[in-house]
Amino acid sequence: MSFKYTPPKYAQLIAELERRIESGEYPPGSPLPSEHQLMAEFGMARPTVVKALGVLRDQGWIVTHQGKGRFVRGRPAIASGQQTRMGRELLDRKEAQVESSLLSAGPVPAPNRIAAYLNIEPKSPVVLRKILVTRDDEASEISSTWVPADVAEGTPLTGTDDLKQGVRRYVEAAAGIQLDHIVEHVTARNPTREECKLLGVKPSAALLAVYAVAREATGKPWVVVETVLPGDRHELEDAYPIK
Amino acid sequence: MSFKYTPPKYAQLIAELERRIESGEYPPGSPLPSEHQLMAEFGMARPTVVKALGVLRDQGWIVTHQGKGRFVRGRPAIASGQQTRMGRELLDRKEAQVESSLLSAGPVPAPNRIAAYLNIEPKSPVVLRKILVTRDDEASEISSTWVPADVAEGTPLTGTDDLKQGVRRYVEAAAGIQLDHIVEHVTARNPTREECKLLGVKPSAALLAVYAVAREATGKPWVVVETVLPGDRHELEDAYPIK
DNA sequence: TCAGCCAACTTGACTGACCAAGTTGCTCTC
DNA sequence: GAGAGCAACTTGGTCAGTCAAGTTGGCTGA
To answer: Does the keyword Zinc belong to this entry (chains A, B) (predicted)?
Structure first.
């Protein structure tokens, strides 16, 4: 006795039209069959056809022009919202799953930049958790997590064991909120003396510094994850539509 | 005799629901009125109500749960696709509208990195257009545009006049294509001797280097716009949803 | 008291129909 | 030959109705 999931009709139409676009049957720039033709071919009501075509338009597979028709663009080069983003990775990184060593984990006064990102007073108590990440036996990056002390208290963030979950989980649970979006800041700077030693770079080296500030839906920030990477060995990559 | 645009009914419903969410009448976490209630209150058919609610869901104002109802999230912190992106600005920048001076404009052999981004052989002929951008009478960034020579030939990119349009327009017209998306690479490096002189920084300074590669929908790249900024004076900022 | 069932409620999907707005090509008139 | 009008076609918006799938609360029976 097996149960078979049948997708809704509009989803089936989406899949078939994508297949035809991908196969070249409907090449970029060519007109799509009219709604009326698709209704006849697939035996569907117009609103069902229109729903499928609406999804394809929203995803960027086609463009529509009232009175003229719909035209093929092709598989969207950018899968909307699908890109890997540095901040997301940092927030969800499980220390137990990467080669890393804990440098420090405990309360410190918030430096000016971190205080500004967290919207708190400079020198407010925050918990700093700092690790050195290694890749292929080479020191690769230094990652620092900054959480307001009253939130981090009692969480594994202040402990010495490798984190089995990403920072996000601990902060969400401790603060009883859901993190919504990340504001990411990228800059370049020279390394501190400590960073020179840990990363094996010269004092004149150029480091990429990324600060991912995670906020809840209202915009209130709850955690900053900073990572510094030697510029000669790392490059951030991102893709987005032109308009 | 005046003509007044009346938005479609579903758009009016969207606007009213957004207003109520923003005003606190429907606070975050609270249930939205059911479809049936909205139909009665606004005198609309169910598909019209559903269409409006679908847009609000897609934009992140609400979340929906079949059988349970729809719940308020609030104004999305990230307006999808609305962020300013460095690559977009670079591609559409009109030299005539910024304080800049032309450093060079002419054919050069493609350096390795640029060739890789343009998917051409190293040392292939490309046109390099390089400008120094000034802000508040201070040298701020060096921007270089790299276009395959056969595309740039005959365009204002090889000329000495300030560009009145962004690079995008010239490339699209010359190549007879439409640019679709940008793949952006960010790294940190030390300045060249020339850059030290132009930007007024020390050889040990850390520069942010941004390469925006503009591609058509098929993924074929057509132009690279590089910009280098002193790290101590610049920071890139970006925001995106966590999931 | 607890578990199961059912009714009422909710959103998801689908149908058929009609009117509005935009596009294009053909025909007719000047 | 050029311009205007109209018919046929296209997508955009709206209505009314039905069935499917999921949730919740109340009632009944063990």
So the answer is: no
